[in-house]
Design a protein that fits this description.
heterodimer; A: 404 residues; alpha/beta; six-stranded parallel sheet; four-stranded mixed sheet; 12% strand; globular; B: 240 residues; four-stranded parallel sheet; three-stranded parallel sheet
């Protein structure tokens, strides 16, 4: 279950990076949380408003019920463009809908232009974290993969490797025709789509690709510019510990000038989100995907994102949402991936009460618990009034667990 | 004032010395404290999402401890169960009022010692560096820090702002391998710290870390209460 030692070391460093940040000011999580709740309380209204505004800007909008439909829609759009090599940015949405694999099966190569994701593709490794996707790839691992994939002389000089990668990615960018973009926010008031990053790959994709296919989770809609400003701050603080992402890429529909896309398609993805809302997990869907709760979670720091499932969310928020969003994939036990340490209680920039949600999901999991668990607690309850039996039984139980 | 020791099931099963140290400390401070027969506060069941067994444990807890003015515990995590979850758990039961009233009277040792005894009554005589491993619930940290500042003579006693050591009963039981792996970085930091003695304020962390440390060596790990009750480490002076 725990990840390999080098991954755990990377996770540990990631945690230290986050722990050195100053604590969030208490106003931000409550204000940002309020902005999220405002939309989630009337999601359908805001979705319709966004769709209408996006269409008014000249975008085409689709809705995808599940990940298969999202895959099909994206691939149809790519096919319509006649392109077989398509660039993409960095977004956990691509892992959620397994787009890389679906595209490959349809003869389309999806090339990540985000350096971290590009390395993942070269090495075939799974992502580690929603933001720091490739933090577990060591220099040696990376250098070997680069030398093999790009037929360059192997080198362990980080500057040289970065230079080589930059040249490769720039060449790809300058030839970009079609790009698939997972966005961070969709603004209902004016139909704009927003992506944040610290390396500029989104801004380049938006400016250089003529045809953008944008993927948005339905919960990522925000009401207006004021809320957007707040949530950009929340995301930037959660993801990078800075007030503002270095780059804010804005997609405002097809442009009539030379710069910017000529065609913008938007796919709104449900894939279990409405089910989560119906199951009373509105508070959890307020998540903006910054990954702050991951980095502080001591369980996640041992297991990495892989343990939560290749397509599911990871970290404490994944442990809350996965049993509802991916019920068919044996995710029911994930709310127990927590020691109850409350490290995630104070780091969420939109103020999600993760310990409470984990407890809630455990109460749900307990309903369908195994007969062994029922037996253990039946015995436990029976022995409670008798210290002379209870204490030795506890000792015995621990001995059995340690031996297992 | 009638004082009871809420010894916790973990200490009773795996660290009887801690319960004895608690009694010794109370005696040295001139307090009358009893340790009524008890088992568990119900945290494992609450943590597992099983409210009915947790409620049974909570009712029993209220029955055992309702008659005391003050209840002391060596575990901030167990205290959280009593003070935060128990009143909610018993809200619609006949024990509701008793549970709410009891919640205000359950204290951890450091909070009690700082508020009602005074840190100046402890004269540390331990030679060697002391570090502190805080329980990750963090609720009692202010009092523990005051006490430690007195014990180490250091305004800012060294504390490991560190991961959870992996003791949650549900984690130990469901994912034993994961729970063991979580202790590793903690033990590594303790080994590298160069401290002669590491104190912790939660019996759960102590028991779990000791079990994982057995094979590896490292500094001596003790509960804060054991340190205070040990005349070789700390002398107790009469109140001024």
């Amino acid at each position: 279950m725990p990840a390999d030692p080098s991954t755990r070391q990377a996770l540990y460093r990631l945690g230290q990076l986050v722990e050195r940040r100053p604590p969030l000011s208490p106003e931000l999580p409550s204000a940002a949380g309020e902005a999220r709740r405002r939309v989630l309380a009337e999601l359908e209204t805001y979705l319709h408003r966004f769709e209408a505004q996006a269409r008014a800007q000249g975008m085409q909008v689709w809705r995808a019920e599940d990940y298969q439909e999202a895959d099909r829609l994206v691939i149809e759009r790519i096919r319509a463009s006649g392109c077989t090599e398509v660039l993409r940015n960095h977004s956990p949405l691509f892992d959620e809908i397994a787009l890389d694999r679906a595209a490959a099966g349809n003869g389309v190569e999806l090339i990540p232009i985000h350096p971290g994701d590009h390395y993942l593709k070269l090495t075939g490794a799974p992502p580690l974290h929603p933001i720091w996707s490739s933090a577990h790839l060591g220099l040696r691992h990376l250098a070997t993969a680069m030398a093999r994939a790009w037929k360059v002389p192997p080198s362990f000089d980080p500057d040289l490797l970065a230079g080589t990668a930059r040249l490769r990615l720039r060449t790809l960018l300058l030839a970009a025709k079609v790009a698939v973009i997972g966005v961070h926010f969709a603004v209902a008031a004016d139909g704009r789509l927003v992506c944040l990053d610290n390396d500029g790959h989104n801004a380049h994709l938006i400016a250089l690709a003529g045809h953008l296919i944008c993927l948005v989770g339905i919960e990522q809609v925000v009401a207006d510019i004021a809320d957007l400003e707040l949530l950009i701050r929340a995301f930037s603080l959660g993801a990078w510990g800075q007030d503002q992402a270095h780059y804010v890429g804005i997609i405002a529909g097809p442009q009539r000038t030379a710069d910017g896309p000529q065609q913008v398609d938007v796919i709104l993805l449900d894939n279990g989100r409405r089910r989560a809302l119906a199951a009373g997990l509105t508070a959890a869907l307020a998540c903006i995907g910054c990954g702050a709760c991951h980095a502080v979670c001591p369980v996640y720091r041992q297991v990495g994102a892989m343990a939560y499932g290749r397509h599911a969310r990871s970290g404490p928020i994944g442990a809350v949402l996965n049993p509802v969003m991916w019920p068919e994939r044996r995710t029911q036990d994930q709310p127990y991936l927590s020691s109850g340490c409350r490290a995630c209680a104070t780091v969420c920039p939109v103020g999600i009460d993760l310990p409470e949600l984990l407890a809630r999901q455990r109460r749900h999991a307990a309903v369908s618990a195994s007969w062994e668990e029922r037996l253990v607690f039946w015995l436990w309850q029976r022995l409670l009034p008798y210290p002379r039996l209870f204490i030795p039984a506890l000792r015995l139980a621990f001995r059995l667990v340690r031996r297992a | 004032m009638r004082i009871a020791l809420f010894a916790t099931c973990t200490a009773q099963a795996f660290r009887p010395a801690l319960t004895a140290a608690g009694q010794k400390l109370a005696q040295a401070l001139g307090l009358t404290m009893v340790t009524p027969p008890q088992t568990c506060c119900g945290l494992p069941a609450w943590d597992a999402g099983r409210l009915e067994p947790a409620r049974v444990a909570a009712r029993q807890f209220v029955r055992v401890f309702a008659g005391y003015d003050l209840v002391l515990t060596p575990s901030p995590v167990c205290r959280r169960m009593v003070c935060e979850h128990m009143p909610v758990l018993l809200a619609t039961e006949p024990e509701a009022t008793a549970a709410t009233a009891l919640a205000a009277r359950v204290l951890t040792w450091p909070s009690f010692l700082v508020a009602h005894v005074g840190v100046e009554r402890f004269e540390p005589c331990f030679r060697g560096r002391i570090d502190y491993f805080p329980a990750c619930t963090g609720a009692e940290e202010a009092a523990t820090r005051l006490l430690l500042a007195r014990l180490t003579g250091d305004e800012q006693p060294a504390a490991f702002r560190q991961d959870c050591c992996g003791y949650g009963l549900n984690l130990v039981w469901r994912y034993p391998e994961l729970s063991r792996a979580m202790a590793e970085p903690v033990l590594m930091t303790l080994r590298l710290s160069g401290a002669a003695l590491v104190l912790t304020d939660d019996v759960g962390c102590l028991v779990h870390l000791l079990a994982q440390q057995r094979r590896r060596g490292g500094p001596v790990l003790r509960h804060l209460v054991e340190f205070l009750a040990d005349p070789d480490c700390c002398r107790i002076v009469p109140p001024r």
